[in-house]
Amino acid sequence: MQRGFWSALFCAIRILELSWLNPFLEVLTISKKELLINEQIRAQEVRVVSEDGEQLGIMPVSRALQVAADRNLDLVLIAPQAVPPVCRIMDYGKHKFEQAKREKEAKKNQKVIETKEIRLSLNIDDHDLETKLKSAAKFLNAGDKVKVSIRFRGREMAHPERGTELLKRVAEQIAEHGTVERMPKMEGRSMVMFIVPNKKPVNK
């Protein structure tokens, strides 16, 4: 019975040890910082994990470096704050190359949202307004934000309600393509309104 107790206790400690170590093993997939490798590692002894994730145990750093060298790989410090520090044996050059490749791919797929502006006047005719709305729709469909502005001239400043009415008309006619993010607001002699693209429906 005593033997079974100690066996169970050993298994429990082993499970806790593995669960404690997992977050450090994940450092390699999430860290973008330069990691210390090989002779840059100053610790006297380290916990070593193989390239396949196998725990090789705690050993002097000199021995860990030799193990890595025998496999033509690098010793990489992935958890310097652990006691003892955790190192992984791996091809660090290949890791850096794949990391850079993933980051490049992510940037390529990332859409940079720009703010386009269309300018109106209080006395704009229907034809010109339609042309402006077509441009706004094109910008919104491309994923950009649109700033709609009206410049007030001379005595027009006495009638801001006309600007509000015009921008409300714009919002209604462009509703199929975008949603008002910021309601009309005076900025100096201009009234501005911001419209953002409508969210595309998610394909189930």
Structural account:
By secondary structure, this protein is α/β, with parallel strands linked by helices. The protein folds into two domains: 29-96, Translation initiation factor 3 (IF-3), N-terminal domain (Ubiquitin-like (UB roll)); 115-197, Translation initiation factor 3 (IF-3), C-terminal domain (Translation Initiation Factor IF3, 2-Layer Sandwich), CATH 3.30.110. Helices cover 42% and strands 26% of the residues. It is built from six helices and eight strands. It has helices spanning 2-25, 27-30, 61-70, 92-109, 126-141, 160-173; strands at residues 45-49, 55-60, 74-79, 86-90, 115-120, 145-151, 178-187, 190-197. The strands form two sheets. The protein has a four-stranded mixed beta sheet with strand order 2-1-4-3, covered by helices on one side. The protein has a four-stranded mixed beta sheet with strand order 5-6-8-7, covered by helices on one side. A hairpin with a 5-residue loop joins strand 1 (45-49) and strand 2. The chain is rod-shaped. It starts with a helix and ends in a 7-residue tail after the last strand. Mean pLDDT is 82; it is low at 8-21 and 23-31.
